[in-house]
Amino acid sequence: MKAQTQADRWSVLRAPPVMAIVAAAGLLGGCDTISRELTGEPGRSDVEIGSFAGGADAPSIPRPEPDETLVESGPSAGPVLAAAPRTSPSTYTLRSDPGIPGYVPAAPVSAPQLVDAKVGDINGRPIYAGEFLRPLEARFLAEVERMPPRQWMVLVSREIRRALDLMITDELLRAEALADLNPEQRQGLRAFLENVRQDLISENLGSERLAERRLLESEGKTLEERMRDEESLTLVRLNLGKEIARRVHISRRDIEQRYERDYLLYNPPPTAKFRLVRAFADDAESIAAIKRELSSGTAFSEIAESELNSFRREEGGLQEVLIEGEFGETEFFGAEPLNEAARGMTPGQIAGPIEFGPLVGWLQLESIEQESVPWYDAQLKIEQELTYERRQEELDKYINRLIERARVGNINEIHQRLVEIAVERYAPDQG
C-alpha cells in the first residue's frame, strides 16, 4: 500500500460533512473501496460476502501516526476506531464495542453547562429559560457585582415573578382574543401585522437583518419577538375593549357617593399664611432697623427675607397652618404671645413688636386660603378614577377565570426553576 502523507490524512479530516457521512457509511458497510479512496491505491471493484465478516479479516483504514487521533467518540456514539494488533504499519481495525481492552473515552473539554431548558407551559406554549431571562440578563449581571448575595437573590426572585405574571397574563389574553376572531378579522390582523413588519424594515434601509440588529440593541428582542409583542398588544386591546369596558358603567350616583366620601379631599380646611420677623430682645440695633423699614413702607415680605430677620429667612418668614377648627382656637406658633396676637388679626394686618422669651417679633397675616373643588368641577376626575379602579377589578376577575380554565403549569414551580437557572447562569459563585 502506498504511503499516505500527513497532508493527505488531514485533508480527509477537513472533508465536508457530506463526505464524512459517506465515509462513515462506507466504514459500516466494510467496503474495501474506502481504503482505495483514502490511499489512492487501485483496488477491487467487486464486494464479496466475506468482506462483511468480523474478526481478523475485518476491513481496515489507514492508521494515523501514534500521536494523532482520527475519531473521538463517547460510549453512546456508535462504532468507534480502536487500536488493534498491528497487521501493517498503517492500519486500525474497526470495532463496534467500546468496552474492548484499552478503550479510553475522550475527556470533556470543560464542565457541562446548561444551554437552555423548558420550565413550563402556558396554554401549550412552552416557556424556555433562555428566552425568558434574556430581557432581565443585563440588570442581573450589573446588580450581582453591586449587591450583597441575599439582596441580589431577593431582586432576582421578585423580578422573575413579576415578569412571569405579566407573561402569563399577556399570553392568556392574547390566546382568548385570538380564539374569538372570525376568519375575516384574522385576515385583517395578519395584514395589519405585516404592515407593521414592513414599516420596521423600511425604517432600516429595507434590510431585515439591520432591523433585527437594531431591535436587539435597543430592546433586546429579535424581529420575530417584536412582532409577537405587537400581535399580543393588538389582541389584548381588542379583548379588553370587548370584555372589560362593557362591564364597567359609572353612574351619576357613583360619582356623588365618591365625592361625599372624599369631601375633605375636595374641600380641605382653610390655610392661614403668616409671615414672622424676629430679633433678639437685647439687639437694639436690629430692632431699630426693623422699625425704620416698617415706617418707611418697605414690604413686610422684603423685611422677612433680609438679614434683619432670624426666622426662616430663606422662606421669607412664612408659616402656613391649617385651620381645622375655629380660627380663634388654632395654634399657629409655639409661643403663646404670638398666638394671642395672630388670633385677632385679619388678612394684611401687621402686629408687633411682640415680646416672647428672649425674642421680639412682628407678625403679618398675609392671607387665609381655601381651595375647594365643587362637585360639578370634580365629577370628571372622579369618573376617571372610578373607571380605572373598576376596570382593574374586572381585569383581575377576568384573568382569574382564564387561569382557572387554561392549561398553565404550576406557577410556583416554574418561578423556582427560573430563579435556580438565573443563579446558576449569572451568579454561580453566590451559592
Tell me briefly what this model is.
This protein has 15 helices and nine strands.
Features:
single chain; 431 residues; alpha+beta; Chitinase A, domain 3; 3 domains; 4-stranded antiparallel sheet; 15 helices; 50% helix
> Count the helices. How many?
15
Low-confidence stretches: 1-96
Distance between the termini: 60 Å
**Domains (count):** 3
Number of DSSP E strands: 9
Order of strands, main sheet, comes to: 7-6-9-8
Helix content range: 40-55%
**Main sheet overview:** 4 strands, antiparallel
> Which structural class fits the helix and strand makeup?
alpha+beta
What Rg, in angstroms, do the CA atoms define?
Answer: 42 Å
Written as H for each helix and E for each strand, in order along the chain, the element string is HHHEEEEEHHHHHHHEHHEHEEHH
General form: elongated
Share of residues in strands: 5-15%
Architecture overview:
By secondary structure, the protein is α+β, with helices and mostly antiparallel strands. It has three domains: 6-95, no CATH class; 118-245 and 407-426, no CATH class; 268-369, Chitinase A, domain 3 (Roll). 50% of the residues lie in helices and 12% in strands. It has 15 helices and nine strands. The protein has helices at residues 6-13, 17-29, 33-39, 129-144, 149-179, 183-202, 208-219, 223-243, 252-261, 263-266, 284-295, 300-305, 336-343, 375-405, 411-426, and strands at residues 60-62, 80-82, 91-95, 118-122, 125-128, 271-280, 318-322, 350-356, 359-369. It has a four-stranded antiparallel sheet with strand order 7-6-9-8. Strand 4 (118-122) and strand 5 form a beta hairpin. Helix 4 packs antiparallel against helix 5 and helix 5 crosses helix 15. It is elongated. It starts with 5 loop residues before the first helix and ends in a 5-residue tail after the last helix.
